[in-house]
Amino acid sequence: MNTIGQPISIRRADDEDIDWLLDMYSSLDFSPEPSLPLTDARARFRQIEGYPDYRVYVAECDGERVGTFALIIIDGLAHGGRPHAIVEDVVVAPGRRRRGVGQAMMRFAMEGCAEAGCYKLALSSHLKREKAHRFYEMLGFERHGYSFMIEF
Question: Where are the alpha helices (DSSP H) in the chain?
Answer without folding.
Answer: 18-26, 38-50, 101-115, 130-138
